[in-house]
Structure formats: structure tokens, C-alpha cells
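Blackboard transcription, Thursday session:
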Amino acid sequence: MKSNTEIVAMLNKVLTSELTSINQYFLHARIYKNWGFSQLNDKCYKKSILDMKQADKLIERILFLEGLPNLQQLGQLSIGEETPEMLNCDYHFQLTQRTTIQQAIALCESQQDYVSRDMLSDILEGEEEHIDWIETQQYQLEQLGLEKYLQAQL
Amino acid sequence: MYVCICKGITDKQIKQMVLEQGVGSIRELKQQLDIASQCGTCAKLTQQVIDNTIIDESLFKDVG
Ligand code: FES
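(Written on the board underneath:)
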């Protein structure tokens, strides 16, 4: 089914963001694992897998619309050096990604591509949940202090 | 955080070069660190870190 190039380009932009996200969370997960923070490792590992599933949906949708999914393009990774910085990097990454997805949803809506729009809404829901999780971590960090917070992540 | 993933260079290392070696551009920084030499993705962020460090430094001078 042929769709307009604008939508395909926008879906590719979201795909780039998800592909970047896969790598960022995978690396953060394994950095946490290396330090023995298994809770944070689990969370980031699962986030990375979720991003992979979301990327898969985008790839299939772009192919369905007779576009070429761009798996070559990757954004800049923001990798922190210690836990609060890593959470902060993820937080800013999420906020930028959220804006991108919102723009994509608005475009699909205006072009009456409701199926792409619904798919993107699902993706956005997952991303917002993760933003909420990071905010909870930042609150706990502030309340408990770094040492106690990290103790709870073992 | 890591600014250059390819070479594992952090923002702290860049800041240090600006403050201690008076580095003011990517070209000057490249003489000190092997940055932005592989994929080049980090060039924009590297420039931002240099600029922000210079701005911070000059603000402190004004206050002091
Ligand atoms: S991230 Fe710096 S050269 Fe690739």
C-alpha cells in the first residue's frame, strides 16, 4: 500500500530514535550489571528489548507502506559515567524522543493514517511509562541519598 | 558523561582541556585528544561542551 513519503520519513525518524534507544539502554544495563546493580540492569535490559519490539513494529509498518526502513541511521548515544548521570542521560533522551513521537502522531493524524497513529500512540505509552519510572528513581535518589538508593539496587 | 563513544572521551576531559590548556575549538582539542576521529557523531556535542565551558568560565570571571 503506497503512502506519502512524508509519513515514511517521519516513521523512519522514530525508528532511528528507537534504534538509538536499544543501544543506549543495552549499554547502560550492562554497565549497571558490571557494578552489581542487578535491579537497574534488569530494568534497562527490559527497556532495550521493548525498544527492539517497537522498532520491529515500525520496520514492518514502513515496509507495508512501501518505504525502506532505515536501519543504518543511528543517533548519538548519551552514556553516563555514574548512576545519577546515567538516569539523567536516559531522562533527557526520553524527553527528546517523546517530542519526536508526538510530532509523528500529529502528522499521521493530519494525513489520516490512523493505523500508524495508533501504533505510535502505543509506543508513546511505553515511553511515557519509562519517563515515569526514571522520575521515581530521581525522587528516591533525592530522598534516600545515593548510598541507600544504590543499596536497594543490588 | 561520554561525549565520544568511539574513543571513550568524557565531557570532564574536554572541560579540563579548555580550562587548563586554553583549548577553544575542535581543531585545537584534536591536538590533545583523539576525539571525533572515527564516526564523527560526537562533533556537535563536543563543540557544545567547549562553548559552554568557555561561557561558564567567563561568567565566573565577571562575578569575581
Ligand atoms: S563518537 Fe566520537 S568519533 Fe564516534
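Lecturer's comment: Residues 43-63 of chain B form the longest helix (21 residues).
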